[in-house]
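tool_call predict_complex ligand=4'-deoxy-4'-aminopyridoxal-5'-phosphate
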Amino acid sequence: MDLFEASLSARLMATKEKGLYRRLRTAHENEEIQVFSSNNYLGLAQDERVKRAAIRAIEAYGTGSGGSRLTTGNLSLHERLESTIAAWKQKASAIVFSSGFLANLGTISTLMGPGDTIFSDALNHASIIDGCRMSKAQTIVYRHTDMRDLEEKLRSAPATGKKLIVTDGVFSMDGNIAPLPQIVELAETYGAWVMVDDAHAAGVLGKTGAGTAEYFGLSGRVHLAMGTLSKSIGAEGGYVAASEPVVEYLRNYARTFIFQTSLSPGVIGAALEAIEMIRTEPERRQRLLDNAAYMRAGLKEMGFTLVEGSTPILAVVIGAAERAVAFSRHLEERGVFAPAIRPPTVPEGSSRIRVTLTAVHTRTQIDRALAAFAAAGKELGVGALKF
Ligand code: PMP
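tool_result ok
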């Protein structure tokens, strides 16, 4: 091992000692294990109709696009996907990126710059945080969903430059919904724009599954509706729906759009079919929300501490990182895969088991998961008032 590797190993060793080492898993390929932490909320990534749509697109257009959108990689499929997303999000236009991460990086760093101010919720996703850093705008982090703190920060911000409030619609690790009605009010009072990251809300919230803004009836007051195709939609890729000038600007200046090979045809075929199913078949969404409510009630009844929320993301707070890892291991021994989420993803002392429900979980599977939580809780002395 040379000096370079030795320094990497030393850091890895320290991470292991703190119980924060990360390992790759293939749990979903093990038939004896039921996954309770997927973002494939509606089960569409394995849906026969969606798979067939992907195959049809591959047969028609091939497996790769072969270039970036502005060179040789622009297919009518990309444009159809963008107009579908714009209509769904009730916006004039939309732009797709190769991932949600790149959508956030490209959008925030391109629209905001030195002299501008970004107001960012403390629990926003890493891709928002990195987008803010890349923008070189002043970024002011407000306490999680704390509207008083946000207002104070808006009031004392510089009077010049553009202002943007950015928030997850549904927080990825806590599962709560951003207080969007208050956010848009404050934005309008203080002359800021609003950007919502609906990675975990699209397909889940709203009458047509369009997400947080639709859920609150605020689509017209959110300027930048960002989301990903990788979760409920069951494919991959990210998007931003906005006004025509904003999208045109991003097409011209967002480096994560300009310099990246465009989405591959199979992914777009799948996404188009999935969005159509989400818009027209609300029963999947209802089943998902019913499953989540059932699991949430069951865990609460057993005395576990959950972050309050009403989405398919259930954060079962355990505390210390090592304890959360041990809890997750106990669950896995009982055939339930729900990983421990530890710092730096969540704050110190709030390590948790992130449970997510899907529309394709059966009641029998959920009951089995509840029994696994009961047994693990008993063994480790967590929660568990009633068994
Ligand atoms: N935003 C949020 C809130 C997310 O949870 C994620 C994915 N973990 C992303 C953005 C990034 O999306 P993608 O996985 O499509 O890159």
